[in-house]
Amino acid sequence: MFPFVPRKVAQKSKANPRHTHSANTTPRPSVVKVSSSSNVGAETNPTDDVKGKRKTNETTPRDEDLAAVLWLSLSDHSLWVNAELRRALASADDGWLPLSTLHRLSAYFPHVTPSTPESAYVKAIRTHASELLEVRMRVSAPSKAGWYGTNTSASSSSTKEDDTGGYEVRRKDWRDALLRARNSSRHEWESRTVYMEFIPLAHRAIPCIYRFTSSLLSITAGQEQVLTTRIQAISLPAHHLDRPGDTPKPKGFALVTFADEVDATRLAADWPWLPRRAPTSITSEQGAQNGEGESELTHEAAKCGFRVLRKERWDELKEEYLAYRQRLLDEIAHAEASGSNEPRSTVSTHPVPRAEAHRPQGHTDAHAVVESANKPSTAPTSTSAQAHDAELPLDPSAPFPPGCLVYVRHVHPETNKTTLKALFAAHAPGAATALDYVDYNKGMATPG
């Protein structure tokens, strides 16, 4: 036998008991039983449960919405208005356009979730647009780097020439569509366009507007083929609060272009601008014709105040509004310029715009009627003043109705708004609701 034990063996023998003991005393991790696929995702992603770290799941678009976006991107109107798309289709291989190219040139793809895979569009075409669109998959060519190497000039020059592959889509009648787009005119498309307002909240996105309009025209009633060529374009006019260059967001109004002027005329007649159709008449009239589903949709549209106007009339109203707004701005500028030249002691008979700016909306009662203490001796009596105010014409551009606003001077600077309200309400004629609003802050100067 060996007279001694080697050092390495001794250290190993001493360490083994401690390791065995710790292994026996360490509790085994509990096994979590997973009963559904959702729990699997939660188990494999523990960071998703951390507060503030969970990512919101993007909603997957519906197949019919993706099919509508594809059709609107390749419609006759899109080929007419988008010259770059028209040139790409003319130079394409037998009308086939890559989905990546269509995604870059189309104005409708930004309204869909950017992370939508191309396979979802392929499924939408085969399910809902097989009669109008075709799709194929193109396999990419092998890279030439295997023959020429990664650092050669031939490899770098051929990188752009290599086909990346992917899915391609085309219209079945792409030759006729290209010919119609070249021969169309702006006047033709303008006559087929309508302006929609107060679209229901659940139908304000562009794909939803497509389905909503199709249902109103009874296009898809009782049919499996959702896609139709009768709707050519949907655009969202810019809001006056939008910044220049921003993509317009759905706000309840849109411009819809049809392939036939008959559809535009019919929709404008069914949903007139004024007077608006009532929900009861729409439900009773169209419920028996189009079924319960159409009745609920039209009832919802009428409840929201949905109405349609021809684009020609919409352009006229827009020009009238812009001219009216400019006239008001000119009048305000002229009034401010003339008012700055008047002496401060002059009593202005016009209402004070600043008080209306702070007046809460939704109130219909009159303002408090309080006479100033510094009236000239030639001032008319209260009865004659009220009669004079009653004879004044009602100007829609005026910030206040005549005879409903007064300007009180020489108010003590330590007075607060609550005291003024109690004082004016006690002296106001009629009920306590005669006092509508008091615009005053403590310490505000009220010179004579």
UniProtKB/TrEMBL annotation:
Protein name: XRRM domain-containing protein
Compositionally biased tracts (Low complexity): 30-40
Biased composition regions of type Polar residues, renumbered to the chain: 280-289, 338-349, 374-386
Classification via Pfam families: xRRM
Keywords associated with the record: RNA-binding
Any one GO biological process: telomerase catalytic core complex assembly
Biased composition (Basic residues): 9-21
GO terms for cellular component: ribonucleoprotein complex
GO molecular function, one term: telomerase RNA binding
Feature: compositional bias, Basic and acidic residues: 48-61, 353-368
UniProt xrefs under InterPro entries: La_xRRM, Lar7_xRRM, Nucleotide-bd_a/b_plait_sf
Region described as Disordered: 1-61, 278-299, 335-396
PROSITE patterns named among the record's database cross-references: XRRM (PS51939)
Taxonomy of the source species: Eukaryota, Fungi, Dikarya, Basidiomycota, Agaricomycotina
Domain XRRM, first and last residues per copy: 399-448
